[in-house]
Amino acid sequence: MQVTLPDGSQREVDDGATFFDLATSISPGLARVVVAAKLDGELMDIQAPIPHEGTVELMKADSPEGEWVIRHSCEHVLATAVIRLFDGAQVTMGPADHSKDFYYDFDIGRPFTPEDLANIEAEMKKVIKEDVAFERKVVTKEEAAKLFAELGQRFKPEILSWIKDERVTLYQDADFIDLCKGPHVPSSRHIGAFKLLGSAGSYWRGDANNEPLQRIRGVAFKDKKALKKYEQKMELAAQRDHRKLGKELELFGFSRLTPASPFFMPKGTIVYNQMLDYVRSLYKRHGYVEVITPQIYNTDLYKTSGHYDNYADNMYFAEPGKEVSSDGEGSSSADDQAAEWSVKPMNCPGHCVLYGMTLHSFSELPVRMADFGRLHRAEGEAVHGLMRVRTFAQDDAHIFCAEDQMQPEMAAFIDLVDEVYNDFGLNDVSVAVATRPEKRIGTDEQWDRAEKALMDALDEKGRPYTVLPGEGAFYGPKIEFHVMDVLERDWQLGTLQVDFNMPERFGLEYVGADSYRHTPVMLHRAILGSLERFFGVYLEHTGGAFPTWLAPVQAKVLPITDRALEHGEKIADALIAAGVRVDVDRRNEKLGKKIAEARVSKVPYMLVVGDREVEEGGAALRERGGKDLGTLPLAEIVARLAAEAALPGLDRPIKKI
């Protein structure tokens, strides 16, 4: 059998040879440091037999894939320590994704204590020091069932029942054996450093009606240096936590009376509205029209769109009041009472209804329909500050176009995304194409065309991308725009989706140049995505130090004496007249305290006014970072701050496609 290495060279391997055998044949030194392999892009165990010819990559511990495998292996070391320390401990499952951390859910009959966690960490270190091997075994389901019965693991029979294949893979390290596809490191010495992050309650299969469990979560790395870097990053992340900053900077808050639904305070509302105004200014230059659509719909809408079958668990349902009357448009009161209703979770089905109210000509296309309407989704336990809420708005738009208009529309949207992220100072952007999921609507031929269209658009723009198999929406594939923040965290923000299905399901049409009626293509697109989530992401990225145009207070006037207050008020009035958001600190406090508090509140500029500034008719200008720009004339200060306070891009030309 022949395999191809990343440099293009080819090597002969025996049938049944493992990836480790391949690494050893290349170099014994390489074999000592590789922890996993990839075959045609699929991550595999270094100990697994090479199943077929293809391109092989051997992954070291310092690669993202290597770290993934290290965390997965440390998860098994965690379980090994728990079963050693707690007689009768029941081991359930860990996560499918180990890109960030690892966990296992256990049942030991009680919650874990801090002392338990310390003992578990100590035992894990012993296992790692023992350099125990991770042994891969393939057995029948019957053999696995017998093994777990002997071990007294009562959750494993149910897990076995989910597996369709008659043969299953087991991994054993020291005292622990479990059902697992892998991959794992060859032995525990490859786990250079780890840290348990704590324990918390959970439920079997995430269902509160099932047995309560205890989840222990941790992180692992190739060495102590990588762990130290992680700890420093987590410390900085804690300082920048958007929930903490939101409270300190008086931006937003939450109430138990409406969980996961933020209240934006006056300063936070300014930031939120600035984002809206900025996006609206783009729409005016890029040919979008803004619309307003209803909040509550008959669920027939979502049955037509396909969301009812694919999204109902995340929808809020509503009942009409008893006194519902018809105004002659739509259903009668009796119809209203009999119908099922839902609060809007997304805009696209409503936009299809709105598009269908008018018969469009090919000369009107594309129709670019934008909507900032409130959306409501019944999110479960995963809610988290502004990052995952139950009510939000999106910079959402849908483009109805002819199929031959897709490529220029996609190219224009990619340019628009680049423009927006550049204005926010988000410069580390990567792109992925999420392809057809197993559960979907539409024909394979439609999915082929849609996926090809997205990839062609990126190819034409010269944008490299990765492919995420199976991660598209149920109605169409999508381009995902991923942004890396200052803490090196990846955030998926913008999306562009091709949808051949929804226009067909709603019977949407346009009259073509041939005078026949045709079905348009629908492009779903967002740039910031959820404004609430973007608010949280950007707050952490900036640490609350928003750029001047976005800051809730852009300048603070700091009079040194009561005599300087009148002049300070005149400066504030001039700045307000120029469109700058200004506060005047009128308190009888020392200048040092006023400056310190202005810095804590992240105000971009401070204008210090004393007797000298009164005489010269200006102010001493200081930047948020502490740089003193000296005493400047009022006119110069107003011109400078007004330019920075304006929305970005207002002087850019109108975009024509």
Can you give a write-up of this model?
The chain has 657 residues and is of the alpha+beta class. It contains 21 helices and 35 strands. The strands form 9 sheets. An 8-stranded mixed sheet has the order 15-20-23-30-27-26-24-25, with helices on both faces. Helix 15 (444-460) links the parallel strand 24 and strand 25 (466-468). It is globular, with a radius of gyration of 30 Å. The relative contact order is 0.07.
List key phrases describing it:
eight-stranded mixed sheet; alpha+beta; 657 residues; 36% helix
Would you kindly provide a brief summary of this structure?
With 657 residues, this protein is an alpha+beta fold.
Question: How would you classify the quaternary structure?
Answer: single chain
Strand content: 25-35%
Low-confidence stretches: none
**Radius of gyration computed on alpha carbons:** 30 Å
Secondary-structure map:
Blueprint (H helix, E strand, L loop, with lengths): L1 E3 L5 E3 L6 H8 L1 H6 E6 L2 E4 L8 E7 L3 H22 L4 E2 L10 E6 L6 H16 L5 E6 H11 L4 H7 L4 E7 L2 E4 L13 E11 L8 E10 L2 H16 L2 H7 L3 E2 L9 E2 L1 H21 L2 E2 L5 E3 L1 H6 L1 H5 L5 E2 L14 H6 L2 E3 L4 H9 L3 E2 L5 E5 L3 E2 L14 E2 L1 E8 L4 H18 L5 E6 L9 H17 L5 E3 L9 E7 L5 E10 L1 H5 L4 E2 L5 E2 L2 E10 H12 L12 E5 L2 H16 L4 E3 L6 H10 L4 E5 L1 H6 L1 E6 L4 E6 H12 L12
Parallel strand pairs: 1-5, 15-20, 19-28, 24-25, 31-32, 31-33
Antiparallel strand pairs: 1-2, 3-4, 3-5, 6-7, 7-12, 8-9, 9-10, 11-12, 13-14, 16-18, 17-18, 20-23, 21-22, 23-30, 24-26, 26-27, 27-30, 28-29, 33-34, 34-35
Helix pairs in contact: 3-4, 8-17, 14-15
